[in-house]
Amino acid sequence: MAAHPLLDDLRAALGDAAVLTDPDLLAGHERDEADLCDSGTPLVVVRPRDTEEVAAVVRVAARHGVPVVPQGARTGLAGAANAVDGAVVVSTVAMDAVREIDPVSRIAVVQPGVVNAALARAVREHGLWYPPDPGSWESSTIGGNVATNAGGMCCVKYGVTSEYVLGLEVVLASGEVLRTGRRTAKGVAGYDLTRLFVGSEGTLGVITEVTVALRPAPEESLTLVAVFPTVATAGGAVAGIAERGLTPSLLELLDRTHLRAIETYRPMGLRTDAEALLLAAVDTGARAADDLARLAEVCTAAGADEVYAATDATEAAALLQARRLAHPAMERFAAETFPGGNGGLVIDDVAVPRGRLAELLDGVARIAEACRVPIGVVGHAGDGNMHPNIVVDRADPASLARGRRAFDEIMRLGLELGGTCTGEHGVGLLKRDWLAREIGPVGVRVHQAIKAALDPAGLLNPGKVF
Amino acid sequence: MAAHPLLDDLRAALGDAAVLTDPDLLAGHERDEADLCDSGTPLVVVRPRDTEEVAAVVRVAARHGVPVVPQGARTGLAGAANAVDGAVVVSTVAMDAVREIDPVSRIAVVQPGVVNAALARAVREHGLWYPPDPGSWESSTIGGNVATNAGGMCCVKYGVTSEYVLGLEVVLASGEVLRTGRRTAKGVAGYDLTRLFVGSEGTLGVITEVTVALRPAPEESLTLVAVFPTVATAGGAVAGIAERGLTPSLLELLDRTHLRAIETYRPMGLRTDAEALLLAAVDTGARAADDLARLAEVCTAAGADEVYAATDATEAAALLQARRLAHPAMERFAAETFPGGNGGLVIDDVAVPRGRLAELLDGVARIAEACRVPIGVVGHAGDGNMHPNIVVDRADPASLARGRRAFDEIMRLGLELGGTCTGEHGVGLLKRDWLAREIGPVGVRVHQAIKAALDPAGLLNPGKVF
């Protein structure tokens, strides 16, 4: 066993089996799924089973002046879960209990290591629904979803993770246990500490329990596909849909690069000759057919070549599945674009006001040309939240530099259009500079003041966010 | 003109007309609508017109070490806007511009002094809807709504104020101007400072601009009335409605005291022999009639004596109007209950998980008997958020003491049932002790640390919240 006085203290607190120092395992806990981010090798990975054990770990680490990096499933896309050299990685993998599901109050109480899909399935048995559905939902954890305020495809109508978090239990840098929020539908008792911790990427505390709000199981939906001659016309259709007062429950955009990547990854008859495809759904109800007709009308007026409704639930599910494959399909496409499988993706996550989406899409095309990098665009069009995926050759510094430049240009454009540098992936390491530009010097000072108030020694996930 | 070096500085910054020291006017700015709360006489009331003027006021006050108390329309019910002796009251009354309405991005940007109803009407012209509708919506301001995170009747389906605040401009204690949030539908750039300021009751900064999200104008709705033999059976019906997965757009409870008070205040043929009445609405759509039938079924199964649907929109509007009259009607009822019009109301605001509502209502009846005070109950049943209104004789210390005891007993019960001491009115002065009990010593320390980080001299709305 590795020798370090910290390790002895951790073993005393958690038992040997929960304190891991195997080099391969440490290497496997160095980083999340973001490219272009630094990472380090942790000294140790611990797997606490409950809040008291997490508190013990934080107290031990504080005593030794060692940083603490919380990790869920490491599916993040901004490097927020990346380890630093010599850190204690707190893995929530052993804290995966769904503690309570209350169908009358429509809440669930879970440990942070519960996988999103596991929670979704557990509440479904009670006729309930946990809407937030990030792309990683089959593997990412609720703790990670909360720490990054994860989005997903349902957000356009049903909102992001933060809108479902009623209360938290958090281990602070001091090792104290804080409970925030409530179990009630409404509540305004004191500062909204719950929302302060949601999206704070492990820099203010380690989340040990989450109380979430649930909805009744969703209605069936009708699905529409619209094929566009350019991505900008698809963007125009999104603005038109908002302007007409329509509220689709899903409104996703895929460009040709993504359609081809998906079709290669798993052939399913997608229109790979289309420049852009909008995928929309509306919840059923009296107005569903009417809403669908109005969506189709707007798409046609915006320049769609072809508009058709899914004929049945099977076709609709297949279309949704195609959209869900965008990320792995593009990863494979990128890998295969360069010799030796060295291709990689730099994933942007810019969000603009819906009315500016067409300008953003036009601009991304210009940036791809100017920087001489392939950029595929996919994303949550209804939210104005796009993921321009920049394809780079990891083995070629010049390609990486061009990709980095395109990445920065896209964020600059996003801010110019009144947008944000991150719609749902978070700041992590990847966008620290851009956060500072977006929130300005006063915003940075307020962030620093809050961080210093809650983590004066700066041991919680150091280097992230700002 | 009153002489104080501070006043000269304020006049230099704002001009004489915006710096008010008339004693009657000062007296009129001492307090909001909450009973049982201390207040003081401000040294001066200022009416800045823009952000720069607010920043100038805060800097002048800081230089002189004088507290700053922000005020909107003073319709609050927790004393959060009450002045302290010698303070500078910053009235937002002259900052009432709707700066922007963007129908495509579905946002509006407003100054804090805009009245809720004025915003609602302005966006309605664009086919849009600003849902938060506190009881005071015809007079309360968006700044005050944001500072207290105001609720309302639509919350059961459409959420409270915080869910509509995308971004803020805030003057900090330092006089610096902070911009938080965004104009986009989604965004996770940095800590959620927007939500930290929402509901912070003027203790962390003075809100000078608000960017709100809007919805398409709402659908028509169908309205149902259910008459119950006891308030607890009405509470049982609310649990049953949640359990059946129904999502009414309105679900309000009125007890007999309120029905009689309203009928006396404005006769409209309400069933004053009923012990409790539930008022429910569902948005129209394919399932509306079906949903209404299921609501009726649940109410009947829970023991309702009579259940009927509003025959038309006029009847539905009248019922809603009756509910909106509950507060003024109860105030008059209370005033007239004691000689000399000395009767007053102590307004509780407890929220419990929906499944515990019947227990809360039962408990309130027991407390009324034990404390020998009349208590009328009204509130947002669908959210589990009740306003037990305690009738006291302001001229009789014994009556006030009994009322205060009942008030405390109700909050104690609310916390025991897993609830919160304030569902929507806020902490202010009225519930400081109960906030501390609810959030515990660690929670209080975190509140204090954040307050100290943002307002080290403690000059912003001192004495409020904690």
TrEMBL record, chains A, B:
Residues passing through the membrane, by range: none
SUPFAM superfamilies: FAD-binding/transporter-associated domain-like, FAD-linked oxidases, C-terminal domain
Keyword ATP-binding: no
Cofactors required: FAD
Keywords per UniProt: FAD, Flavoprotein, Oxidoreductase
Top-rank lineage group of the source organism: Bacteria
InterPro entries, A to Z: FAD-bd_oxidored_4_C (IPR004113), FAD-bd_PCMH (IPR016166), FAD-bd_PCMH-like_sf (IPR036318), FAD-bd_PCMH_sub2 (IPR016169), FAD-linked_Oxase-like_C (IPR016164), FAD-linked_OxidoTrans_Type4 (IPR051914), Oxid_FAD_bind_N (IPR006094), Vanillyl_alc_oxidase_C-sub2 (IPR016171)
Protein name: FAD-binding protein
Species of provenance: Micromonospora aurantiaca
